[in-house]
Amino acid sequence: MIEEETITKAEQKAQKIAHQNFKQPLSPAWVILILGVVLLACVVFSVGTGALHISFSEIAGIVSHKIGLSDTPILEEQKEIVFWVIRLPRVCLGILVGAGLGIAGAALQGLFRNPIADATLIGVTSGASLFAVIVIMVNIKFFGIINEYAGAYTLSFSAFAGAALTTMIVYQLSKMTGDGGVTTMLLCGIAINAFVGALTGMMTYLATDEQLRTITFWTLGSLGGANWTTVISIAPFVGVSILFMPYLAKSLNLLVLGESQAAHLGVNMKILKRSIIVLATLAVGSSVAVAGTIGFVGLVVPHIIRSIFGPDNRYLLVGSAFGGAIVLTIADTISRTIVAPAELPIGILTALLGTPFFLYLLWNQKRNRV
């Protein structure tokens, strides 16, 4: 009983530290409700927007006819095909990728207690990029075996394997070179990222013009290859991360007091670090594998949600998943319509929009502290 009271007081102290100079305009429940409604509105807008416009009434008719609520046939079969085969899978993939990047970014910022932390710090993105470049450039028997089973998804499979392998190396190296603490892991991540980045750069330097073009477009990110198979393949990885990450929120709140203090209050730091790294790798690795490198979502979205929610991870993690899905759905809609009939790589758009917005958030936080 005394121990529970101590933990409760410590958590309240951690929240007080985290909430300094923060004014919460809305309750977390309202913000989650608002984000859910906004996400639904973004989905409806996105599936209806494009070269072939589909109105809200037509979307409702297509869905109700498909699930058997209406016997009225669709007048324009082309719109139904575009909706089910092209638009909806792409929007669903955008939701999954955005949610995965958002919740992983929020969790890693909490773990490292670093507002600029994201998946690049533990090698997920760099590892996926290296293996993707290797697959694009090298045609050896091993990849022939993968092609036999993975088919068109060889690149995605290899990128995910690279993300997982690099993250595992960073984690193991942090235990070998130090005490396995967050700071040691961060330093090992920086070192491995530099090494893997150098290998990727060397491979890119040796690439032919055709290979270089493929590498460039992959690293810029795109949801253009979305289909239901891709959505189904990524859903379990992102779903596991979104489902289990919020259970770590209480431990992340206590971590605000510091690693040693959190450990004294019953937080198993080894399990916490391992859980967050595994879940973040599952979400980000699978997202990068199917969509390429999409920057700033995992960095900016948690800051946006934190400015609305506050820093309580019980709401921040879920809010970041919603926020990431919203941001990437809107960004993808813009990327495929702004230069139609061509398509602007979504990674370019998120960086162009994310950079000034991130700077504005920093400026606004400084103004509120004054």
TrEMBL record:
Source organism superkingdom: Bacteria
Membrane topology: Multi-pass membrane protein
Nuclease listed as a keyword: no
Keywords for this protein: Cell membrane, Membrane, Transmembrane, Transmembrane helix, Transport
Keyword Cell membrane: yes
Single GO BP term: siderophore-iron import into cell
Cellular localisation: Cell membrane
Residues annotated as transmembrane: 29-56, 88-108, 120-140, 152-171, 183-207, 228-249, 276-301, 313-334, 346-363
A single GO cellular-component term on record: plasma membrane
Gene Ontology MF terms: transmembrane transporter activity
Predominant cellular place of this UniProt entry's protein: membrane
Family: Belongs to the binding-protein-dependent transport system permease family. FecCD subfamily.
Name recorded for this polypeptide: Iron complex transport system permease protein
